[in-house]
Amino acid sequence: MRLNLTFVVLLGFCWNLIECLVVTATNKSTEPQQEYRPEGPLVMCTFLPNEFLDCEDPVDHKGNKTAKEETGSGCVKFGGSRYEDVEKTKVTCTVLPDIECFGPRKFSRKGVPCIKYSEHYFATTLLYSILLGVLGMDRFCLGQTGTAVGKLLSLGGIGVWWIVDVILLVTNSLQPEDGSNWNPYV
Questions:
Q1: Alpha-carbon distance 168 to 165, whole Å?
Q2: Do 179 and 79 meet the contact criterion of CB atoms below 8 Å apart?
Q3: pLDDT-wise least confident of 15-24, 50-59, 83-92
Q4: Exposure string (b/e) for 103-141, b if CB count within 10 Å is 16 or more?
Q5: What percent of the chain has pLDDT over 70?
Q6: What is the C-alpha R_g of the chain?
Q7: Cα distance between residue 109 and residue 48, in whole Å
Q8: Cα distances (angstroms) measured from residue 8 to each of 2, 4, 28
Q9: Does the keyword Transmembrane helix apply (predicted)?
Q10: What's the pLDDT at 62?
């Protein structure tokens, strides 16, 4: 009786071992990857939105056009208020770990805008300009210290400079000094 039980346990163990070896061998096969099915459940990794990707920041070449030409990517200048004015580049993106998609998980994404954001908010700067523009607070907020001191000492150009700066802000002609775009999140 004891021998039969030992034989059954040993047979069950061997059966599971053979089954594991067969499954492992099929999972590690060198068959080519299946082709992409558009009607299938997986989307191409390159089609994923930015929320599912970890992309590198664009490389800042700061006016060095030859460095951009040598590397094939990067930004010579950042910023711009119109779509046509903003330079575009390519960056390397990696799919986040728990996201399932089809294709390579690390790829190059083209058409990324060369935009950087800093602590400059349009609404805050406009309020500074309307309420404290005579004292040059809007220019201090934008990082334009020299013109801010001039505006402070002349009391907003006796009101004229104050009104002109409000108009310049509203028409988007007065931008932050560091070349960054207005931060979209207030």
A1: 5
A2: yes
A3: 15-24
A4: eeeeeebeebbbbeeeebbbeebbebbeeebbbbbbbbb
A5: 80
A6: 30
A7: 11
A8: 10, 6, 30
A9: yes
A10: 80
What values do phi and psi take at 111, rounded to 5?
A: 80, 20
Q: Is residue 59 classed as helix, strand or coil in its secondary structure?
A: coil
CB atoms within 10 A of CB 26: 9
Backbone angles phi, psi at 117, to 5 degrees: -115, 145
Q: Which amino acid makes up residue 131?
A: L
> Which residues are within 8 A (CB) of 166 and not within 5 positions of it... i.e. 6 or more apart?
126, 129, 130, 133
Query: Residue 28 gets which letter from DSSP?
Result: T
Q: What is the mean pLDDT of residues 49-78?
A: 85
| pLDDT tens, residue by residue, 128-163 | 889 998 898 989 988 889 989 999 999 888 889 989
Under 8 Å CB-to-CB from 139, ≥6 apart: which residues?
145, 147, 148, 151, 165
Tell me the two tokens of residue 66: 């030859």
SS3 content of the chain, % helix, strand, coil (to 5): 45, 15, 40
Identity of the residue numbered 39:
E
pLDDT (0 to 100) of residue 107: 93
Residues in the chain: 186
Residue 32 CA to residue 15 CA, distance in Å, equals 29
